[in-house]
Amino acid sequence: MSPAAALDRAALVVDGLTTALTRLRRARLLHPRGRSFTGEVTVWGLPGPPTGVPLLDRPGRYPAVVRLSKGVPTPDGWPDVLGLGVRVRHGADRPFDLLVSSAGAAPVLRHVPLPRRRVAGTYTTVMPYRAGRRRLFLAALADPESVDLGRDLAEVTAAARSDAPRLVLAVASAVGPWRPFGQVSIGTQVGAREDAALAFDPIGNLPPGLRAVGPLAWLRQVTYRASQRTRGAAPTSGRVSPGARSG
User: % helix / strand / coil in the chain, to the nearest 5?
Assistant: First the structure.
């Protein structure tokens, strides 16, 4: 069997398993419990050598949708692999879907999902990207000057009502330090229907100059598309207006 044929067969197996589990759960296969909010991404511009990705290198301000979620999910207050999804509307045909999971900040841990209790902390893309010849990881880091996001989704919602919580956006090489280039602000919670319709595509919805690479990128592409197809969501859905409110 050729490598291409083996890969196609593996994709069929993963697709079938994902479809069955999504039907059984009747929700997202991954990170089913979450809350979505309007938001804004502010890019300050990257100090030092540019990445070659204009969206990361050049200052700008963009509307966004932000989703915070629990991975398994465990009961409130228990450790879990937490997720953060940010859909950035940057004027291109497709948005930029940034998906990051709770992980370690150190080079040896930034590609390993790690459970934790507190919502604020280090989130990384886990999988690497390529920008030209560079191998990059993206992250959302705790902002020490922001209101605390608490330990569960209810506390996140309360924090968003009282203030505009923020997380710092950063980029790093596989072994280099994190370099902050912007922030994401969390605004008003949107309704359950809008949250259910939101469907991220972390492989296809990328800005010019950035591409996902590696086995995890392949696995994410297959599982996300199968799960979204099964629950009737499209990876460009979830267009939340800035004035949307929960209801």
Answer: 25, 30, 45
- Specify the DSSP element, H or E, that contains 202: none
Phi and psi at residue 145, in whole multiples of 5°?
-100, 0
Interval 135-165: pLDDT, tens: 999 999 999 999 999 999 999 999 999 888 9
Side chain identity, residue 121: G
What residue segments make up the domains of the chain, in order of their start? 31-211
142-147 LR contacts (CB < 8 Å, sep 24+): 142/167, 142/168, 143/167, 143/168, 143/183, 146/120
- Give the C-alpha separation, 186 to 68, whole Å: 10
List the one residue out of 186, 181, 192 whose CA is nearest residue 165: 186
CA of 93: how far to CAs of 1, 89, 115, 177, 204, in Å? 38, 9, 35, 32, 12
pLDDT for the residue 1:
66
Return the closest-CA partner of residue 22 out of 195, 176, 225: 225
**Which tokens belong to 25?**
């759960």
How does pLDDT run across 108-121, given as a tens digit for each residue? Answer: 888 899 999 999 99
Is the overall model pTM greater than 0.85, yes or no? no
Per-residue pLDDT tens over the stretch 151-205: 999 999 999 998 889 999 999 998 889 999 999 999 999 998 898 888 888 888 9
Q: What is the CATH number of domain 31-211?
A: 2.40.180.10
